[in-house]
Design a protein that fits this description.
heterodimer; A: 181 residues; mainly alpha; 72% helix; 0% strand; B: 624 residues; alpha+beta; five-stranded mixed beta sheet; 26 strands
């Protein structure tokens, strides 16, 4: 029944789809961990402890993957045989790249302001909004599932990687500002 | 081999005796031990009725003294009396010096990576000092509970890094304890608090102890404690409050930095009692004997005290903000804040924390005992005393784990606040033609430069088949177990050549060192090792037989066909026979292993059947 070759959706008894019921995902996750977590085997044999460790590790990995829209999209593309080499993620969307450059400049300029917080909050909200747009697009693309739409989904994934990176840079700036207080 | 403790609710497995287990709060300043008996978790007192054991160990030519008596002698005998060993455990000499040069100990330079302190009873490492404290607490538990402990849960600061965790486990090994689990202190507090209040939702645990600070954000849901994020500072605590006060006094009284160890000790004692008094009064009088025989008199007001500690409290609030961000929530989503650790008695701390989370901090459980009580509850569950218990703790790794890459940069493999257990792999390649070896440097921390992170281990992967640059595929796998301990393996994949290494942290003891210390302590106690080993194996045999019998009774008919059943029965019988005839511990161990091997398929089937049951009860269409 616990099959390490199972796909993550099957593991949680969820349909293979981008749109996911996050409440049941979390619920199933807790149910599975209740059974496989190493704490259940603290007084058991080494062999059972090893098995439990492997299973709990896989359940955690599966949960982490499905919970996060970007990781979920990458995983779905993999299941569909679409290669998403994250190292070489690119997009040819000129308008998008232009927007990225502008956002990056805006972030860099914040550093020199006396009170960077209002601008930083605005910028982070803007990036958050753009990420949500990509998530909505991914939902449509995966719903269709045609080769063209999957290719479009690959592109959306690349864009999300750009946006996520920018978002974490904004967070890093926020953390840096706090350190200086 | 408990063969899984999955029983359906209401259907108990075979009746087995209550296994003795204890939770230990190994603190910087004070330590406690607690256990669940008669259905309630309680801290245990010594013969004199004291629950708290000061974490102070004094070495004398006559022997080792632990606790209040040792603490009382600290001023007169500073070099041989070790306090706050927790601040030193799992650290290298260099790290310790940065903690502040006011430590009154004489460290010895040695080959070993573990620092040792020179005492009249010989050189001791912080691990051995901690083991002494653990021994006293364990024997207190065994006396109170009337039997051997099957295992313990020891709490550590959530922000402890890998080396500090490993060192704590080594200390337990030296003390002869079976460690079920290392449990994070704030998680332990959440258990004690959550079970008490039946709370659900998101909670923050603010834990400021003597030498460490932790903040954890947890979500409670039907008995599952899910740590969303944790943060802190493993070298910040009430001791720093004392030091700030002591430094202020030195300044006021004109005492120089070169004052001797006894004067420093007495100053920090004064500072500590002044701090404690200021939770009740608005000012305290001070009197200090000066080295030249004169004395200085002064006063510390609460306002001045607040000024002195505010920068330290600000550091903790900063960590709270970071933890919230990692958890992806804002302060107003936190339902309440539980205060843990003696240093949260300071009114200023409560005030600032309340301000930040915009809620009155909860101080209803004795902040000194709550961690030990939570650990005791978890120990009871892990001992298998509650097969139907729904409680489950899902914890995270506190600091990012990574590898050194070109140019002294860190490549993060497992980011901080990832739920454990976890395993992640990353592929690397060679950068020179014909390269046959690769250095792997494992680091822990959040910074981008290796130099700013904690170095955990270095090893070399050798025997890579010579290839052109970039052709080799070296897969490095990091796995963190449920204790938060890291294992790293590297493997060359392209030509199927395997070379893997298990890493021990650089600042832990080597296995040989542990073996040597264990041997010495056993010889010292005059115990017969063979008899002890045999006894342990006999207990293990009984446990395995009991577990397997119970498992067979509950689902043997359902999961096994007649042939399989007779295989398992025969293996079980063989072990029972061996137990009756053999007096050889190694042979018994081998017999247990043989049985486990023979029942391999059954164990797996039971686990799967458990998963099946966990997933049952959902509608069929949910699975489509």
């Amino acid at each position: 029944m616990f099959d390490f070759s199972k796909n993550y959706f099957d593991l949680f008894g969820l349909p293979v789809a981008f749109l996911i019921d996050t409440a049941s995902l979390a619920e199933r996750y807790r149910e599975l961990q209740r059974v496989v977590h190493p704490d259940r085997y603290a007084s058991a044999s080494e062999q059972e402890q090893r098995l439990a460790l492997q299973q709990a590790t896989m359940v955690n990995e599966a949960f982490e993957t499905l919970r996060d829209p970007l990781k979920r999209a990458v995983y779905l593309l993999q299941l569909n045989g679409v290669d998403t080499n994250q190292e070489t993620a690119t997009t040819r969307d000129g308008a998008f790249l232009m927007q990225q450059m502008e956002l990056r400049e805006a972030l860099a300029e914040l550093r020199d302001l006396d009170d960077p917080y209002p601008g930083l909050d605005r910028l982070m909200a803007q990036i958050g909004g753009l990420i949500k747009e990509q998530v909505a697009q991914l939902a449509v693309q995966f719903e269709s599932g045609s080769p063209e739409q999957l290719e479009a989904a690959r592109e959306s994934v690349s864009k999300m990687q750009f946006l996520n990176k920018l978002h974490s840079e904004a967070e890093a700036l926020e953390a840096e500002l706090e350190e200086m207080i | 081999m408990a063969l899984l403790q999955i029983a359906e609710p209401g259907q108990s497995t075979a009746p087995h005796e209550h296994r003795l287990a204890a939770g230990i709060d190994l603190g910087t300043t004070n330590s406690l031990v607690a256990s669940v008996f008669s259905g309630e978790a309680r801290t245990l007192a010594d013969d004199a009725g004291a629950h708290i054991l000061p974490s102070v160990v004094r070495y004398t030519p006559e022997g080792v003294v632990v606790g209040e008596q040792a603490r009382a002698a600290a001023v007169q005998d500073p070099h041989n009396t070790i306090a706050s060993a927790k601040r030193l455990i799992g650290r290298a000499i260099g790290d310790i010096k940065t903690l502040g040069d006011q430590l009154p100990y004489r460290f010895t330079e040695q080959d070993s990576a573990v620092p040792r302190i020179r005492t009249v009873a010989g050189d001791v490492s912080p691990i051995e000092v901690s083991a002494e404290i653990l021994k006293v607490l364990a024997s207190r538990a065994q006396q109170t509970l009337g039997g051997e402990l099957t295992g313990v849960v020891i709490t550590v600061p959530a922000y402890f890094d890998d080396a500090q965790r490993q060192a704590t486990k080594d200390a337990a090994k030296l003390a002869g304890l079976n460690v079920f689990r290392l449990l994070n202190e704030p998680t332990a507090a959440a258990v004690a608090y959550g079970l008490d209040h039946g709370a659900e939702g998101v909670h923050a645990i603010y834990d400021l102890g003597g030498g460490t600070f932790d903040i954890s954000i947890l979500r409670l849901n039907k008995g599952v404690f899910e740590v969303m994020a944790t943060g802190g500072d493993s070298a910040l605590g009430g001791d720093d409050f004392d030091r700030a006060i002591a430094e202020w006094i030195m300044q006021q009284a004109g005492i120089g930095d070169s004052a001797d160890a006894g004067v420093l000790r007495s100053l920090s004692e004064q500072a500590r009692s002044a701090k404690e008094a200021l939770s009740e009064q608005t000012s305290v009088p001070l009197q200090v004997a000066l080295p030249d025989g004169a004395s200085w008199q002064g006063e510390l007001t609460r306002d001045r005290f607040n000024e002195l500690v505010d920068p330290l409290i600000r550091k903790t609030i900063s960590a709270c903000r970071r933890a919230l961000r990692d958890a992806g929530i804002s302060a107003d989503e936190v339902e309440d804040v539980v205060m843990v650790g003696g240093s949260t008695r300071a009114l200023r701390v409560r005030e600032k924390v309340g301000e930040f989370f915009d809620t009155e901090p909860l101080v209803s459980i004795d902040p000194d005992r709550v961690v030990a009580i939570g650990a005791a509850i978890q120990a009871d569950v892990l001992a298998g005393n509650k097969p139907d218990e729904q409680m489950l703790l899902l914890d995270v790794n506190p600091l990012s784990l990574g590898l050194e890459t070109m140019g002294g940069l860190v490549e993060k493999i497992i980011p901080r606040n990832t739920t454990i257990p976890v395993a992640r792999a990353q592929e690397f390649t060679t950068f020179k033609d014909g390269q046959t070896a690769m250095a792997v440097h494992v680091v822990q921390g959040e910074r981008e430069l290796v130099a700013d992170c904690r170095s955990l281990a270095r090893f070399e992967l050798r025997g890579i088949p010579p290839m052109v640059a970039g052709a080799a595929r070296i897969r490095v796998t990091f796995s963190v177990d449920a204790d938060g301990l890291l294992h790293v393996e590297a493997e060359e994949q392209s030509q199927g050549v395997k070379a893997s290494v298990e890493v021990k942290p650089s600042y832990g003891l080597t296995d040989d060192e542990i073996a040597g210390m264990l041997k010495a302590s056993i010889e010292h106690a005059g115990e017969d090792m063979a008899a002890r080993k045999l006894g342990e194996q006999q207990v293990e045999v009984a446990r395995v037989v009991e577990a397997l019998t119970a498992a067979l009774a509950s689902d043997g008919d359902e999961l096994l066909n007649a042939e399989e059943r007779s295989t398992v029965d025969a293996a079980l019988q063989r072990l029972q026979q061996a137990a009756q005839t053999s007096q050889d511990a190694d042979q018994l161990k081998a017999e247990i292993e043989a049985l486990e091997k023979a029942c391999d398929f059954y164990v797996e089937r039971r686990m799967n059947s458990g998963i099946h049951k966990a997933m049952a009860g959902h509608k069929v269409e949910e699975f489509e």
